[in-house]
Amino acid sequence: MSSVSTNNLIALADCNNFYASCERCFNPQLIGKAIVILSNNDGCVIARSAEAKKLGIKMGAPFFEIRHLTISGELLAYSSNFPLYGDLSARVMHLLKSHAQEIEIYSIDEAFFTLPKLNDIMQYCRSIREQVRQCTAIPISIGLAESKTLAKIATTQAKKSHDGVFLIDSSNREELLKNTPIEDIWGIGRRLSKKLQNYGINTAWQLAHSDDKFLLSHFGVCMLRSCHDLRAIPSISLETEKTAKQSIRVSRTFPQIINDITTLLQQLSFFTDRACQKLRREKQKALYIDVFLEGPYPKRKQLSMRYYLDEPSDYTPDFIRAAELVGQKLFDFSEIRKAGITLHHFSSQDSWQQEFFSQVRDHKKQTSLMHEVDQINLKFGTGSLTYLSSGKREFPRGTRLSPRYTTSWDQLPKVK
């Protein structure tokens, strides 16, 4: 057994090849086959199965470059089915919560959690994996360590383990850190890894033994916390409470070039509607909106502008009007390949500063109207009720979309 107390361990559960695993849940014939999941409009690869990775398919690869593999039968491609993925993720997290003392849902397919004091924590984690597999058909790997950063490394090792569980303790930590490249450490991206390498820090072990004052002065407190985490000194705590978002962004790369103002304004209206729906789900109001337009490759000319409202709002028509005004000012009859909007400067729906000289409005009526619109879209599906200014939606569902097996009565799997 390990030389660390189970009371001090942090576990990280990571769903293996999550999107591909979701597609396999109701279609077992896909098990063992190379699968990729495509972005909106089937544009590029956003997820790959292990078999697809072995074919050399890169994340973000344009679909047209690998389409020939689907024609030859070497590869299967599916449109992103986010309602299915989100529902299966919620089921996995619900099961993990039933075992955890504390849990931080880090992403759609990852969660940090702590466990009660146990005699055989490895066997207990194996039983968690088996329960998740039996109840959801989603395979997970669990890494255990004394800090979140080490738990990330442990989960990478767990994916290679025969039983999907791996523990980092004092007996194996040095060897693992010496064999972990600096760019593979959680929270250290390409830019920071290059800067660290310039100072001769190439592995997790070297980072763990770097001078604290040096790291703090050259890289800041976040890097210092990562360093302490690698020393098995927990410095990054579990975030068990959901933190409010600081901004909400909706953007798209268009399937065809846009060169007319009417189509552009329709798309900006559609983006704004989606963003405001997310804003209300967060129970927030926003004060201003950023709008940007981007031209095609290779120049990728970009224009942007900000519009402030008189007071914080979650009323969609306020932001649609603002987005249209900005869009009209930015549009210069040039070709547009990508556009988007971002809502900023949030205030709580229950507590926000009203502008003294702003136009008098019936906030209660507006809130009630938005609530009814959201409820209709929740009951009958996103896009059931839209704004006339959005026109026809320019982003149809992917042509390779699997059924929404768990979230639509009409698409429930049938037993013959």
From TrEMBL:
Belongs to the DNA polymerase type-Y family. SUPFAM superfamilies: DNA/RNA polymerases, Lesion bypass DNA polymerase (Y-family), little finger domain. Signal peptide: none annotated. The keyword Magnesium does not apply. Pfam families: DUF4113, IMS, IMS_C, IMS_HHH. It comes from Lentisphaera profundi. Residues 10-189 form the UmuC domain. Keywords: DNA damage, DNA repair, SOS mutagenesis, SOS response. This is Y-family DNA polymerase.
